[in-house]
Design brief:
Radius of gyration: 17 Å
CATH superfamily: P-loop containing nucleotide triphosphate hydrolases
Number of helices: 6
Largest sheet: 3 strands, parallel
Distance between the termini: 36 Å
Structural class: alpha/beta
CATH architecture: 3-Layer(aba) Sandwich
Number of strands: 5
Number of domains: 1
């Protein structure tokens, strides 16, 4: 048996199978169930995250799977405003303030984009997600990575 399938069975979750429909059913707090799946691409600038995310989206879409391709931090109007703040060239905020801005953008992204797509049974493909915050604000700006994970 393949290692990925073994891991899924150990976690008591159905294994995703491609080609074909992705079978999922992950519980959420409060007893709700999400029918979709979230796949994230992480990596340094220029590593091909966006390209690979687009390829995967096209592959799944070509097999009849509902797909929602998105990216952080600019998947929402709030996220775009946060990105613009850092692209303006002005001195950035303190590390914790920077982290909270990105966490706020992520929460809005989950509420507006990710959760509705997952609840609708789509495969959500995100160009960056939580690991980017651990890398940039944690290891890059000195915020305790455990604090980031807890938030």
């Amino acid at each position: 048996m393949r290692p990925a399938r073994e891991a899924c069975q150990r976690a008591r979750r159905p294994a995703a199978r491609v080609p074909g429909r992705v079978r999922v059913g992950h519980p959420l707090p409060g007893g709700a169930s999400v029918r979709g799946v979230l796949i994230t691409f992480e990596g340094v600038e220029g590593s091909g995250k966006t390209t690979q995310a687009r390829h995967l989206a096209a592959f799944l879409d070509g097999r009849g799977q509902r797909v929602r391709l998105t990216r952080e931090p600019d998947g929402t109007a709030l996220g775009q405003a946060v990105r613009a703040l850092f692209e303006a060239g002005a001195p950035g905020p303190a590390p914790l303030a920077e982290m909270f801005l990105f966490l706020a953008a992520r929460q809005q992204h989950v509420v507006e984009v990710i959760r509705p797509a997952l609840e609708g049974g789509a495969v959500v493909i995100a160009d960056r997600y939580v690991d980017a915050t651990v890398a940039y604000q944690g290891y890059g700006r000195g915020v305790d990575p455990q604090t980031i994970r807890e938030l």
